[in-house]
Design goal:
This protein has 269 residues and is an alpha/beta fold. The protein has 7 helices and 9 strands. The strands form 2 sheets. A 6-stranded mixed beta sheet has the order 5-6-7-3-8-9, with helices on both faces. Strands 2-1-4 form a 3-stranded antiparallel beta sheet, with helices on one face.
Amino acid sequence: MNTELFLRGVRLAKEQCPAEERDGYAFRLPAVRALRKGVEFTQPVTFFMGENGTGKSTLLEAVAAAWGFNPEGGSLNFHFSTAETHSGLHCSLVLRRGARRPRDGYFLRAESFYNVATEIDRLDLIPAMSPLLKDAYGGRSLHEQSHGESFFALIANRFGGNGLYILDEPEAALSAVRQLAMLTAIHELVKKGSQFLISTHSPLLSAYPRAEILVLDGHGLTPTPYEQTEPYLLTKRFLNAPDRMLRELLEEPAKDGGDGRDRRTESLD
């Protein structure tokens, strides 16, 4: 176990949550139920991977809120609220904190980063705010940049090291080249004593060598080698034989025999 980590583990204590929250959607997810036994973090970077609907974003959002971050994203100093869409899961999580305390931290929630950018612009209009918040993001309003540029401006300029960074699908707006650049940025921040929790579908980001990968599925959370993750296997198969896979995917479906199944994707199982 890495005793230098800021966050060393998470455990579910459902009894801490208000009764009206205990039967919500989040508590029915296998990955969340698996937290009753707890999960330990062993590496400076932990990736959460799995199919849509397995609870990656729900879990990371709850961990971020339990740590004290705004559920919509930002640093610990952000307290705005656009819409109450997060689950009550955070109140049931027991965080096992390390001996060290981070000097920096950030929660990037891809789907609400627009709201964070709006809040930064709003705060910068207040005369008392000096220096301007946007200076920490490279000096330009995030709204004056493309979605991908604003994501990378955050990573390249705002993250200072010795911090806990929780990132929900950061590859959502990044090209392949920018994802590789992000790998370099993550590595430099790890060398500065940082810890990352990242949900992702990216076979590029998840290749980071000093990482543990937890796959969320019907069995809970399973530590999985990089070469056994679905994004890696599927991408490798496609790149090895793109013509063959495209033929399998795009050909007319065979007769389904009355069972309603689409035969185009059976060979990909």
